[in-house]
Fold:
Amino acid sequence: MKALAGGYARARDVTHALDLLAQADGMGRVLAGGQSLIAAMNMRLSTGDMLVDISRIADLRGVAVEDGCLRIGALTRHADIGTDPLVATHAPLLVQAVHHIAHAAIRNRGTIGGSLAHADPAAEFPACVLALGGTIHLQGPEGVRQVAAEDFFVDVFETAIEEGEILTAITLPLLEAGERHVLIETARRSGDYALAGLCVVKRAAGHRVTAFSVGPRPVLAMAAMERLDAGDTAGAVDALRAEIDPPSDTQASAAYRRHLAGVLLTRALHDLTGETA
Amino acid sequence: MTISFGNPDRPNSYIGKTVPRPNAPRLVQGRGKYVDDIVLPRMAHVVFVRSPHAHAKIGAIDTAEAAAVKGVLRIFTGADIAEVCTPWVAVLAHLKGLKSPPQHALAVDRACWVGDPVVAVVATSRAAAEEAAALVEVDYAPLPAVTDMMSALDADTPVLHPDMGDNLAFRRLHEEGDVEAAFASAHKVVEARFKTARHTGVTLEPRSILVDWNPAEGQMTAWHATQAPHMMQTVFAKHLDLPEGRVRVICDDVGGSYGIKVHVYPDEVATAAIAKIMARPIKFVADRLESFTTDIHARDHEIGARIAVDETGKILAMDIDDWTAIGAYSVYPRTSAIEGNQVVNLCGGPYDFAHYRAQTSVVFQNKTPTCQYRAVGHPIAVAVTEGLVDMAAAELGMDPVEIRRRNMYADDAYPVTSPAKMRFEGLSHHASMDKLMALMDYEGLRAEQAELRKKGIHRGIGIASFIELTNPSPFMYGIGGARISAQDGCTVRMDPDGSIVALSGVTEQGQGTEAMLAQIVAEGVGVAPGRVRVITGDTQVTPYGGGTWASRGAGIGGEAALQSALALKGSILEVAGAMLQAPADALDIRDGQVVDTATGEARMPLEELGRIVYFRGDTLPKGLPRELVQTRHFITSDYPFAFTNGVQASYLEVDTGTGEVKLLKHWCVEDCGRIINPQLVDEQIRGGIVQGLGGALFEEIHYDEDGQLLNGSMADYLVPMAAEMPDMVIGHVETPTMESTLGAKGAGEAGTAGAPAAVMNAINDALRPLGAQVTAMPFTPERILRAMGQIED
Structure:
């Protein structure tokens, strides 16, 4: 099929991009890496979009440590995250995630901001940012605001981003001493969306576990985390299976996904501790 | 003239060597010419409005809003097209009882599957036509959809085509020997139920056609991504009421076919009809969603099967009950009964046993029609046969290789006729098995498997012997009344510069046909392959032929090329003899030079001979034949089909926690007779194996119970990708067919035929100690865990 775009404009900077969105009469769509949006347009799942291309805004790209946080610009591409030394030092979970994301061509174009804003429930980065307790930075006509990852993901393809806002960056806490990260998933083929996946972050304060591809948005597995903090790994597996409500589709049933999530948690803990759960 | 194939040092010894493909640089540099690359003056694009219902009565069609879209030229309904295009009925006389209703290029009263074309919108661009197509309003009245195979014939299931009486399209029962008695007296009987999923071919280039009608010439020209240009010539002529000689089908580069592009598609015929009505070029290129809803599907079978063996593992009998659901129509003109028929013909194929019963039941469904796709019926028959043999071996406590060795036809038993009444000229099951055992170090792998099992690692080894039907005679389609040619021809000529042009009726789909033909002609004439230019795929230019299907290109087209090349060599040497005052049989052509046969001494380059013949013919003796062009046609006549054989093995690991299967290695030893180009044959085998592995582990078209297609994209229909593919080791045994000088049989489908069975047997080998078994493809992680009882609902 041929895409039916309503228009296209390339933004010079964030202010320009916000102006373009404001003029788009509700049809504005931010174009970053285009790895989901263009595919949707080519299937005519989305038509008439006024595309606001932010991909040339240099300020939105790159990784830095600022104010005691790791700041990743929205336009930072998956491939760059996979090789960035600051990310490797402070958020190794993201580096692990990159190995699972799609294929080289997609990793070379796709951006972390795009992945978070698109909020595919099977995507890795949203679950990672949630597991790490990150903060999403938005800018709109009214100025800038910050949203905690816990409050950001609302539903399938739905986030806290308001009409006319742009996701500009994420910030993540710096890695503390002894902190460990594991991302584990099972997919039908290399690069496919996971049938189910887990992020496990172990900090002095306790565990943070998120599950993806098991519901309409990434799940912070509070009950499993509580069991893990209590040292009850078997209980954590049961708790995780109980607190997710995965979908059935042509690749796997809900029952399989629920079972798989437990298997993956067992394996993630093994990777984390080197011990068999 | 004969060729001493056994002597690798013979002159011009290109047959049997890996010669580079002449068309590879063109394709790699993006200089290929596919249908979508062709742009003609006044060309318009057609887009089809397709039924969103599996079964619906078509009511009023409102095109007013669509017609107003800028760029729209004209909109056609089924009734409009039916005025210039007659419907077709896809039956063949030798498939007794096969029935199918008339099918129109655009559905007229009733849409019968999701994707059935209903309205055609023609516009100056594809985008404009799509925009308008979305605005066409069709008043559908949904009808009950028939979507379940096994209940299709039940009394309370609606009859899809009331005129047909019931939902049974075709049924064939074959019985040989006394099956019931054999089962009754058997030492062991093993029974199982198998399923193969609905697949489609997923060609890289989608179906594409560009048709022009020139009323001034009274000629229709179709640039068509097809495997069978001459067959399509007949189809367009017949249904658009044109003389066959006034239809030209041109088939330039084709981006993969796998059988998908050998059928008649209603939207393609509609495109030709529209070109005729509008008297201007019309292009149709399917998009990927259309490919999933309208390219033929295949392999949707459920099979109940049992095998009887004695104490020594000798197979006594097999009993097969095959069911398949084909869609709402049998596909024209090859029909949709062939796949089920092949299952009947091929089950038990490698084995020498006496009592055999097989029945296929082919039922109508409100789904995309199914038809012949690479290795038609083979993957099903091989999975059933090899699955049963492995289960019998396990029941007897016998090694799976040993039970096969006890049952395979002896290598010196040929010719033989199988219980399915297939005639085998010469096969090499035992030699192939021996070679496989050596290649894979079977004993070593078994030891490794046992060692790893102690550590909780579950690996499996699966073996699958198979036969493959190639080089079909008219027994496949021609005797049924279809104008599908089993013979093929080649014209070879020498031009003044000594270069050679070969025109062949077999076609290039990207698989290397032209390379194969070039090296045969090069050896036959006596020039370097680079001096041979091959032209295929033009009904007005090449000799009449069948094209590419059923692994016939090398065996049939190759022999025609060889015979025409040898004939041209004879013609050249007759002229050379006159010029050089030497007997023609004392001369030979080597590397583009006429030479003395005995000494190899160069006597004259071919370009000098060409100069004299074409420009100074006055210097040659009057009456000397000087036609430096020869045509030969070839058809097999001793056997209906040239069967090949082989054996595959899979080594894999099952993750018993997640149910994932990791393919570790795959082997295939096959016997396609004379190998013309080893690299092309090996890559055909590998590509075929990949498609077979796709069927075993990934590929499955899903419909819901209302007949809605659930996975019409590359994200949801999982084709095998490089990362999941194992290393593949390919070996060969060569048993040339005696029907031809060349001795080549087909190699294109062997990989696909055996791979799913090998994987199934390997998974079950890994799972057997856990008491689990899988027989429904694809073997998804979930199906494996369910077989292990790991998932409770």
Observations:
- The interface with chain A takes residues 126-127, 130-131, 134, 287, 289, 657-660, 698, 700, 702, 710-711, 713, 715-716, 718, 720-721, 723-724, 780-782, 785, 790-793 of chain B (CB under 8 Å).
- Residues 553-580 of chain B form the longest helix (28 residues).
